[in-house]
Amino acid sequence: MELHISIPFNLLREKYLNQVLELRVSPEISIKAEDLDTLSRKEFKEIADILKREALKPSIHLPFMDLSLAALDPWIRKVSLKRLYWGMEIAALFEPKIAVFHSGYHPDYHRDQRLYWREIFMTESLPSILEHSLDLGLNLALENVFEPDPEFLAPLFSEFKERLSWCFDPAHARVFSERNELDWLSTLYPYIKEMHCHDNLGKWDDHLPLGKGVINFGEIFRFLKAHHCNPLLTIEAKKEEDVLVSYQYLQNFCF
Length: 255
Hints:
Elements: E1 3-8, H1 9-23, E2 26-30, H2 33-38, H3 41-53, E3 59-61, H4 74-91, E4 99-101, H5 107-110, H6 114-136, E5 140-143, H7 150-159, E6 164-168, H8 170-176, H9 181-188, E7 192-197, H10 217-226, E8 232-235, H11 240-251
Helix pairs in contact: 4-6, 7-9, 8-9
């Protein structure tokens, strides 16, 4: 399995680029709203060109904070899509393996109208997003965050299976959804192309190193092996030292 390390673009540019080049590790570059608002296209392209020259092909995490791609309010939906599209255009400069995005579903707003929300996402927002990704040459993966259960997302992947893949986040499944991480995997594994690797204590999205929480990664990796799944793995860590802990944990299963 291929391994990437999640690094915000500003930190990659200002602090970690030399380490990434020396260690020959591909980053998953998180592009945030403030990056899009303060940096020029040229500044993004400079980093993209360096990675290309060094034959390091990153993945990208597209902007997601506050975005609601199928918002029930059409104005919010419009501006959310506009922000995502700009992120996608910048992401295309890196020619990434995968570009990950969030749907913006949130139980506080959408639970009572979840089927209506899904209809908007399936018939309006997602087709437009996928059309834009086709124009840009991006491979998109939708990450599970606050969605209630895997069956809620299954029709999306089935409908758009040739153009949309799944980024499995087992830690999100454990703390934000109504089903555990193994239920998610057993339902949606045919669509998996990436997995975000971080742990938690079962109550909040702690982003702990692997093995320091309650997520059943051992069973997850046994399932992936048994079903011949080979997703890109991305370590998401809050602290620099946690990256090595997670990497060493993964050595037992993948490398």
